[in-house]
TrEMBL record:
SUPFAM superfamilies recorded: Nucleic acid-binding proteins
InterPro entries to which the protein is assigned, alphabetical: NA-bd_OB-fold
Lineage: Bacteria, Pseudomonadati, Pseudomonadota, Alphaproteobacteria, Sphingomonadales
UniProt source species: Tardibacter chloracetimidivorans
Protein name in UniProt: DUF2815 domain-containing protein
Region annotation Disordered: where it falls in the sequence: 182-220
Feature: compositional bias, Acidic residues: 191-220
Length: 220
């Protein structure tokens, strides 16, 4: 069986949400024992535009149709005071990996593993995300309009995280990466003395909703 192709990419900078970068997500209802982080950005930001461009190019290289393909870039949602999820107006770039990503500072210098244990990268930190896209096909069971359960085939893109470049560190509770110095400057290890076509961008809790045409732009 032929090995699936991988398309390398660096995207961002994003604001980090739910980061599990120095240890896997191993506790709680949704724990899957993977390293992960969601990158949050405004739809009009350079991060969003660059991610959209990379995704469009990746879809083309994989020979996938933009419409109907599940993407790692989604509309962020959050629960309101009634417990119902609704869009926040921001986008979310979802990543994960079975292996620990290489973490670099803003100068592109990998942070030693011993120091990472004390770093505690928290939500609100900012940085670039590096990794690779792969495509997937899976069969899911859904309930149709008649209330009957049927199987449908889902096609999508996945982004596997291999590296993170920290630009801003907010402290909170695999493979190599190759970053050059970030133009805008930012966090550098050692400077912190405290040791303590129409893309289908759906909501982060959506799997089957149809998306409308946006005249060649992203369906956000």
């Amino acid at each position: 069986m032929a090995k699936k192709p991988r398309i390398q990419a660096t995207v961002g900078p994003f604001v980090f949400a739910y980061p599990h970068l120095t240890s896997p997500d191993s506790e709680g209802q949704y724990a899957d024992n993977k390293y992960k982080v969601d990158g949050i950005c405004d739809p009009a930001s350079p991060a969003a535009k660059s991610a959209e461009a990379v995704i469009k190019d990746t879809l083309k290289q994989f020979g996938l149709s933009a419409k109907g393909t599940q993407l790692p870039l989604k509309k962020e949602t959050a629960k309101n005071d009634k417990g119902k999820r609704e869009p926040t107006g921001k986008l979310m770039f979802r990543t994960n990996s079975q292996y620990a990503p290489t973490i670099c500072d803003a100068a592109g210098t990998p942070i030693p593993e011993k120091a990472l244990k004390k770093l505690k990268i928290g939500a609100g930190s900012e940085g670039l995300l590096q990794g690779f896209f792969t495509d997937y096909t899976r069969t899911e069971k859904i309930r149709n309009a008649d209330g009957e359960v049927e199987e449908v085939e889902t096609v999508g893109l996945k982004f596997t995280l291999t590296g993170v470049q920290l630009i801003k560190l907010v402290k909170g509770g695999g493979q190599g990466a190759n970053f050059s110095a970030y133009d805008g400057g930012g966090f550098t290890y050692g400077s912190d003395e405290d040791d303590d076509d129409d893309l289908n961008i759906d909501a982060d809790d959506s799997t089957d909703e149809e998306d409308t045409d946006d005249n060649g732009g992203l369906d956000i």
